[in-house]
Amino acid sequence: MVVREKFEGELQELKINVTRMGEMAIQAVEKACRSLLERDIELALAVLDEDKQIDKLEEEVEETAILMIAKQQPVATDLRHIISAIKISSELERVGDYAKNIAKSSIRLAKEDLPFENEDVAKMHSACLQMLNMFIDAYNSENLTDAKALAELDDQVDELYGQVIRSILDGSFSGKNTSNQSSQLLFIVRSYERIGDHITNMAEEILYMVKGRRYHLND
Q1: Whole-structure pTM over 0.85, yes or no?
Q2: Higher-scoring residue by pLDDT: 56, 168
Q3: What are the backbone dihedrals phi and psi of residue 135, each rounded to the nearest 5 degrees, phi first?
Q4: CB within 8 A of 24, min separation 6: which ones?
Q5: Tell me: the pLDDT tens digits for 70-104?
Q6: Which helix or strand (DSSP H or E) is residue 76 part of?
Q7: Is residue 88 packed enough to be buried (19+ CB in 10 Å), middle (13-18) or exposed (0-12)?
Q8: Which among 59, 113, 132, 203 is least buried, having the fewest CB atoms inside 10 angstroms?
Q9: Residue 170: its pLDDT value, please?
């Protein structure tokens, strides 16, 4: 019984660290967008620096998970929770990387005379933040309904991404924006589109964790 209690404590700690990574990813995305809108180079640099903390926590999650498998030889249900923690932490690390990419774009745009404004980017940002918050809740409560709903939100992000790309291709985006803003917009919306994809991957891990089957929500 003592051994089992110790293992459950380790499993809970693993889940807590994954949740911490999710919260750090949310902060990274929020700060990256704010640095973009406010042309705040210092805030953008903070996103780049804090990404190292996300990377470090991913390594800790992976190391802890591997040790748990090696030492405890967990049963099927517990093993799924551990494997999902490894995969989700990897996906969250990638979310942090894309937030870093947005921050890099904000640095490149900081000296522009005109502020960067794009309604579709604002919508993509809001949708991705909503998805990240929903993911954390769904992961901790193992809520399959919310996990599946994340794929629908990702469809919205994909649609917004397509709108921006079409507006650039047909020349309707330019307006008051500079050529530099237009080119950086491509990197920014691509980053948000990829963030949505990674969150959907994490939602699939929740389904696997609970149901023991692999589902592809983007199909």
Answers
A1: yes
A2: 56
A3: -60, -45
A4: 50, 53, 54, 57, 92, 96
A5: 887 788 889 999 999 999 999 999 999 999 999 99
A6: helix 76-109
A7: buried
A8: 113
A9: 74
